[in-house]
Amino acid sequence: MSDANQTIDELGRRARDAAADLALRSRGEKDAVLLAMADALVAATDEILAANAQDVERGRAGDIGDAMIDRLTLTAERIAAIADQVRGVAALPDPVGEVVRGYTMPNGVRVQQIRVPMGVVGIIYEGRPNVTVDGAVLCLKSGNAVLLRGSSSAASSNAALVEILRRTAAEHGFPADAIQGVPSEDRATVSALLHARGLVDVVIPRGGAGLIQHVVTNSTVPVIETGVGNVHVYVDSSADEEMALAITENSKVRRPSVCNAAETLLVHHDVAESFLPKIAQRLRAAGVTLHADEQSRAILGDDAVPATDEDWDTEYLSLDLAVGVVDSLDAAVGHIREHGSGHTEAIVTSSLEAARRFSMQVDAAAVMVNASTAFTDGGEFGFGAEIGISTQKLHARGPMALPELTTTTYLVQGEGQIRGAS
Amino acid sequence: MSDANQTIDELGRRARDAAADLALRSRGEKDAVLLAMADALVAATDEILAANAQDVERGRAGDIGDAMIDRLTLTAERIAAIADQVRGVAALPDPVGEVVRGYTMPNGVRVQQIRVPMGVVGIIYEGRPNVTVDGAVLCLKSGNAVLLRGSSSAASSNAALVEILRRTAAEHGFPADAIQGVPSEDRATVSALLHARGLVDVVIPRGGAGLIQHVVTNSTVPVIETGVGNVHVYVDSSADEEMALAITENSKVRRPSVCNAAETLLVHHDVAESFLPKIAQRLRAAGVTLHADEQSRAILGDDAVPATDEDWDTEYLSLDLAVGVVDSLDAAVGHIREHGSGHTEAIVTSSLEAARRFSMQVDAAAVMVNASTAFTDGGEFGFGAEIGISTQKLHARGPMALPELTTTTYLVQGEGQIRGAS
């Protein structure tokens, strides 16, 4: 067994034992420790900021780019916001124990399908230290032990956060091993985690397309794929122009770096002449670069750069937008079926039939009709928390929160019933 | 691209197109074609039996064993039973279009989580030709296109069945490519199917432990793991003896070859002296060989053969039963957590507390309290059909039927709402 496999084996076994304990905890016990964790994080602000400063300094020296530095950097305000998130999770209902279905067989045997924790959840993520706390508390609330494999760029921050959470868990009679960090200096620990079948019940990657692709194609542990959003806004011929302008702008510029941000605008041929110059003006004012196909360029001229083939498949996560003109709703749907990532697709239309066909034919976790793509979000959907946005079809699709971190078991109760021959 | 990859690529693309069509079909259309398929199967009995005879003859020549020959063999009665199953699926509610959740956001945007088909389902299975029909009609009813990769030992039977189903689909205006067989003479098609990410949405293996292990450790397409059942019956110190005898016997001998059959009997030390000789007598009469640990052998003597370490991990699927004596409920739970496959675990007890602890601590798809393990079955649970019994925690756990062959999408409808900055 390699060092990394050995490490994961040890962490995984401890996590399994912790999970067996967690599965029996009541909501009251779990909420108490979560509230204590929120307080502990705020109380340890200085300790966290000192650790974070080391990461930021290392990042600056390594020249990782301003956007990465921004994601990495913690402040007292951000720590307070993270603590508030933890309190929010404490306030959410406990999914464990929920009876999903229940009925009595003709022979009197009672069947109940009951939500139970998954067991051990592995989370593999990149530079944002807040994911450490998010992942830990969502798993704890749902009765799961967690293995947190963050990025080496945030190693000091993550270590400090995990230490505070573990300390608080132990102080409240919870197993500290419910929350464990996986060493990030050794890249091989990712691979070991992805092959820990039997010890780890599910792996959730949170990060960019490269990370997610690596995880889904290499894991033998079941994976929930999250987050890559090559999101389209389609402006139909019947669209209200003002509405289409507002939705396109909001979908693109509200927060370009998140997965629900629009990356491609498709405009129906009949309205392109009127709509494109107006949206170009608005977006240019917001600093957006348009990457336009030939038909759009014929209208926009030098307001846009020529789109390449790659543009249609690119999740920019920046102030860039691919723009294309389509001849029909079917052409828009065809384009999206070919290039979309199954995250969020939006149509702006006043036609009921267009809305119906678009929503039945694009194949995505969320379909927006006359609403901004920015609404694909666990918080907006009222889940109170979000572990990520699933773009796969198995288990969970769309924003995932506490129930998505559970599985179910059938509890079957009788008085000695046996089954006949047929 | 290898030949096998090329084959799967072509089949997969046709399946995707068929799936886009199927997703729009109403329940009425789907039920009509299913009923026609049932009739067509019965009408083609001679054709199917002739094809099946070729497989059986090849199997006999190849000396594949009586149990395999039995699974492979079709008769007019078995074909009639398969057709009845198809009619049963037609009678089931259509899961597609079900609104799982629905609510309105504070800003007036309406959110609905709606069941939609997965898309393309791959089923990889062994010698039973009835799985061909089962898999095809369950997928069709749930709006999915299916790629059926059966065993080469049943190649002629499967080809005949697929041909009848495709012909009937086409006659009723459905895409024939909704149901496609994958060539079984080339083993490489399995591997190609397991790596068809983007074309195949989920792979479901149905068969023995070897097949399932191969699929789950090699697939980059999401897998639903089914069927391996190392099933335990635990007889608690407080068990009603008659009930324990009946449940143990029924769990073992009713149908030893299916995954819900018991493979290990654990008996509490306090009742072993009385219980073991009685159950041994009953099971011996049914032809069962007991593989007993030392403590059990001290009671049973030569009525049992010594158990080896492997016995505790073996899914016999035959008239064999491992037998062990445990000192406590905790020891039974510990044994099951170590050796169980997460399928079905049973306790016979009159203690409420023992029932509660057992059901919360063994980690299985189904937990039986005072009922036979044979009840873990889609038909018994009232699902009307079964695609397999999932022993994994993601997506589906326990018997799977139509809803488990669907995913969901969020349909979000507004009147131009955009999202604020925070």
Can you put this structure into words, describing what you see?
The structure is a homodimer of 422-residue chains. In chain A, α5 runs parallel beside α6. Chain A has 14 helices and 16 strands. The model of chain A has no long low-confidence stretch (mean pLDDT 94). Chain A has 422 residues and is of the alpha/beta class. In chain A, 54% of the residues are buried. The longest helix of chain A has 20 residues, at 3-22. Chain A is globular and about 70 Å long. The first copy, chain A, has a 7-stranded parallel sheet, sandwiched between helices. β16 (406-417) of chain A pairs parallel with β13 (366-371) of chain B. Chains A, B: Catalyzes the NADPH-dependent reduction of L-glutamate 5-phosphate into L-glutamate 5-semialdehyde and phosphate. The product spontaneously undergoes cyclization to form 1-pyrroline-5-carboxylate. Chains A, B: Belongs to the gamma-glutamyl phosphate reductase family.
How many strand elements of chain A? 16
Biggest sheet overview of chain A? 7 strands, parallel
Mean pLDDT score of chain A: 94
Q: Given the C-alpha coordinates, what overall shape of chain A results?
A: globular
The second-level CATH architecture of the largest domain in chain A is 3-Layer(aba) Sandwich
Number of domains of chain A: 2
Order of helices and strands of chain A: HHHHHEEEHEHEHEHEHEHEHEEHEHEEEE
Oligomer: homodimer
* Order of adjacent strands in the largest pleated sheet of chain A: 10-9-11-8-7-12-13
Helix content of chain A: 40-55%
Largest interface: A-B, 70 and 70 residues
Function (chains A, B): Catalyzes the NADPH-dependent reduction of L-glutamate 5-phosphate into L-glutamate 5-semialdehyde and phosphate. The product spontaneously undergoes cyclization to form 1-pyrroline-5-carboxylate.
Pfam family, one (chains A, B): Aldedh
Catalytic activity (chains A, B): L-glutamate 5-semialdehyde + phosphate + NADP(+) = L-glutamyl 5-phosphate + NADPH + H(+)
GO biological process, one term (chains A, B): L-proline biosynthetic process
